[in-house]
Target: 2Fe-2S ferredoxin-type domain-containing protein
Amino acid sequence: MLQRIVRYCFAHGSHKPTGPIFAPSVQDKMIYINVYNDGEFERIPAYIGESLLTALRRFRVTNIPGDCEGGEQLDNILENPVQTNTFGPSCGSCHILIPSPWIEKIRDPFYLEELIINRQDYAVAKHSRLACAIKLEKWMDEMEVSLPINENSENM
Model:
């Protein structure tokens, strides 16, 4: 009975399917990140919309502890960088380097990210970012990321 109702609605309604209806596959929601870590290369899969730190931690990439996990209400920071009622990242242990041309395409860091990067003990470069503040997008497929060796962090 339900099938006949659905067929009738599609046949007589304005929403006629033009072809087979498919749900998006996992592959459509996935990208790959190339990670250079302590002289070694890893290619890790990541999901569009998650933070780079989440992908790195899922695959247990060493030298990136990410102690604060992006701080409080990270999703709000990634969606709306001018969120006034959040603390954001607080430790800076997920410091990464993103080479050209990728760094030019990524949005500028918001003020909390800049504050954390500038107060750390490690050498800051113009390519320095925090992995917890990078929201992965489709165009970032095959992006290259380098993890600097931080003497203050322990290998996980």
Summary: The chain has one domain: 26-146.
